[in-house]
Write a structure and sequence with these properties.
Length: 124
C-alpha cells in the first residue's frame, strides 16, 4: 500500500541533498550508506543515485531484496535542540537507465523507492 508524502515533507526533501540509504542483501545483513536523492513528483517516488550506482552494494541489495529505507535528517538549531527527520521505507527497484536526468552527480543507474511507510519528526 502506497504512502503519500505531505507538502511540508516534500518541501523538506527539496531543501536537502544528502540522506542515508539502508538496504539488506540476499544474506539479510544490513547496509547503510550516505547517498544523494531526488523526489520524483510525477511518480511520487524517491530516486536515489550517484556516479556509479550500478557497481555498488546498495544497488545489488535492491536487486536481491527489493526493499529499502531512506532517512533524511538535520538540526535546525542546537539551542534549543531542534532536530528534524524523515524516514521513508518501501519497495525499491534498481533502474538501469535515466539517472542523468536527476541532476549533477547522478549516473545512468539509480534506485527508485516507492514509499509504503513514512515517519517524520519536526516537519510541520
Amino acid at each position: 500500500m502506497a504512502a503519500e508524502l505531505t507538502t511540508p515533507q516534500i518541501e523538506y526533501l527539496a531543501s536537502q541533498r544528502l540522506a542515508r540509504l539502508a538496504t539488506a542483501g540476499a544474506d539479510h545483513k544490513p547496509h547503510v550508506v550516505p547517498t544523494s536523492f531526488r523526489y520524483n513528483p510525477a511518480l511520487r517516488t524517491i530516486d536515489v543515485g550517484g556516479h556509479h550506482v550500478a557497481t555498488t552494494k546498495k544497488y545489488r541489495d535492491v536487486r536481491a531484496n527489493g526493499w529499502a529505507a531512506l532517512v533524511v535528517d538535520d538540526l535546525v538549531s542546537t539551542d534549543p535542540w531542534t532536530p528534524r527527520m524523515l524516514e521513508i521505507r518501501g519497495r525499491a527497484e534498481a533502474v538501469e537507465q535515466g539517472g542523468e536526468s536527476l541532476g549533477p552527480g547522478f549516473g545512468p543507474s539509480f534506485i527508485r523507492i516507492h514509499p509504503e511507510k513514512i515517519n517524520s519528526f519536526g516537519i510541520q
